[in-house]
């Protein structure tokens, strides 16, 4: 569930960012998507990739622990 | 059962959190100040900034009353539970997703302001991604510990922040940096430019943002006494923001203030008393960090409560992964600071704030009122028949 939430919120936030970019800069959809990843401040920064991986791994671990706890409770 | 034995179990995560009235006051005060204190409020009104902000305060109080009234219609319920009371669960889930994303998105904007401030003043050689990630992970941990910890943090640090900011004002005055002619003429261009500043910019922030009350007040132990305290906090924080804006205009003049990225910081840099008390911009950075921590946490808490409602899991499980998303998107939301500011001024008020801060809440209140009156009519009929 936590992993699903992570992916859903990631997607929704991307949609928010792209829609607002379209509204402000009147650019096309694909250009706005590209703009996200061409951010001057974050271009090529390993910190961003590390953050994404950390969040994803953390949510997977939480899900695994929740599943284990459910199994234990059933036994 | 003590906390230590509960720790790690589901019941520990599901403990009902309670915050005191003074903690609520501290949260509302810091939330209102947020990152706005360094960026400045209503500076586009130029010399008449104080008039614009006073008018915005009067209208803003009406908005605050509206949100407090909204919480009294469904006592003990947060915004997401109100959705379910008005509609059914699938619609409530859909709306909760929208609002959760909105709260996370706004958290990103607050963090970005902080990151830009740190990158341009205190740590110019440190990448902005790193300073934002460091702060957001702290915020994630605070939220993992619960809103009580955040409330205590705000309660402890607020007096320090207040004393420091008043010290800054005193230093600005003592250093003879204030020029009274900067706020003249009064209403030189009439009222029209003021309305353009007030609607919608000065109403959506900081007053419309108090939508967050709809999920904080449900945690207050003495909720019935919270109304007057919230009003007190809003008025005192608004007055502090008005004084700050006046100080900025007095010290810098409206032209420099409008061009400056962080006007209060520029004003603080003017202070030089006897060539001894100088470089007191750390005061501004401290105040903004405290405001950012509280405001960002409150927005993230809103998003987490939304996820708690949707997935029926304690919000603590989501805190670190969502913190990572907030850290990432605080970079992605704008290619540079100019883009970030443009989005905040052009798109956010119309696309996000007006519908989500005023549109949906008004609809919710109308539906709640209709349902309550319907219930009262039904119970009245049943009493008559009985």
Question: How is this structure best described in words?
Answer:
The complex is a heterodimer of chains A (75) and B (386). Helix content of chain A is 83%, strand content 0%. Chain A is built from three helices and no strands. The two termini of chain A are 22 Å apart. Chain B has a single domain, classed as Hydantoin permease. Chain B has 17 helices and no strands. The N terminus of chain B is likely disordered. The chains are: A mainly alpha (75), B mainly alpha (386). At the A-B interface, α1, α2 and α3 of A face α7, α8, α15, α16 and α17 of B.
What is the fold's blueprint, element by element?
The complex is a heterodimer of chains A (75) and B (386).
Chain A: H1 2-25, H2 29-37, H3 46-74
Helix pairs in contact in A: 1-2, 1-3
Chain B: H1 3-6, H2 10-13, H3 21-33, H4 36-39, H5 49-73, H6 79-86, H7 89-122, H8 128-145, H9 147-174, H10 192-204, H11 213-216, H12 226-252, H13 254-259, H14 263-269, H15 281-311, H16 316-332, H17 337-385
Helix pairs in contact in B: 3-9, 3-12, 3-15, 5-10, 5-12, 6-7, 6-17, 7-8, 7-15, 7-16, 7-17, 8-9, 8-15, 8-16, 9-15, 12-14, 14-15, 15-16
Brief descriptors of the model:
heterodimer; A: 75 residues; mainly alpha; 0% strand; B: 386 residues; Hydantoin permease; globular
Question: Taking all residues together, what is the mean pLDDT of chain B?
Answer: 87
Count of extended strands of chain B? 0
Number of domains of chain B: 1
Helix content of chain B: over 70%
Report the top-level CATH class of chain B: Mainly Alpha
Figure out the total of helices of chain A: 3
The main sheet of chain B comes to: none
Uncertain stretches of chain A:
none
CATH topology of chain B: Hydantoin permease
Strand fraction of chain A: under 5%
Mean pLDDT of chain A: 85
Number of domains of chain A: 1
Q: Which two chains form the greatest contact, residue counts included? A: A-B, 39 and 44 residues
